[in-house]
Amino acid sequence: MGAFTLTIAAARCAIKDSCMRAVPLTLIALLSITTPLIAQADSLVARPVAPVVRRNVCPFECCTYREWTAVGEIPVYVTEGDTTAVAFMIKDSASFTAIEGNVHLQRLGLVAVHRSVADTVYDTYHFEPGDTLLVLDYVGEGFYTVWRGGSLEETEAFWSFEDPDEQSADEDAGITGPAWTVVAEPDPHWWVRVQTKDDRNGWIYMNEAHVTNADACG
Known about the structure:
By secondary structure, the protein is of the alpha+beta class. The protein folds into two domains: 2-43, no CATH class; 52-212, no CATH class. Helices cover 17% and strands 38% of the residues. The protein has two helices and 15 strands. Strands 1, 2, 5, 13, 14 and 15 form a six-stranded antiparallel sheet that branches. The chain has a five-stranded antiparallel sheet with strand order 11-10-9-6-12, with no helix packed on it. The chain has a two-stranded antiparallel sheet with strand order 3-4. Helix 1 runs antiparallel to helix 2 (22-43).
């Protein structure tokens, strides 16, 4: 409606000079309507599709990139995400610097919500029937990064990947059936860029490597 009014005002002004003030006023009105919509659209996050790389993450509570020590030999790869080319080996008990890490998700988790679920103690989450959560990386303390309806957020896991059949039902309130369904479990692959004391660099695949001193909480 605003765009149509603007067009009519412009046409009239082309014929009659006295209408010249109508266009700026109508344009201001139109912009005042559309600007919040544009800002809202800019804030939306597109639905992620696997594979997804979550960069600069350390995927557990107290996880810290600093000097680590190898437990057993660790292959160091030329490129993250590729285990076909080994650059060199880190020897057992050798110390090295973990610089940064990325989590590659080959599959996203999926949780479908059937009934309202909420954290009634700390109010850390509230989801309604019909909500679909795409579960990405684990961030620690029972929290995951999830995508829901155009936004990324961190939420405490009310579901269980270990036992997806362990689903909530409020039998005391006469409600039966699951509050949610775990449709798929995420498939994360953690890669860490490292540097040795003799200045060699590469990537280690943490799904298979074992280290100490990565946990700042001990």
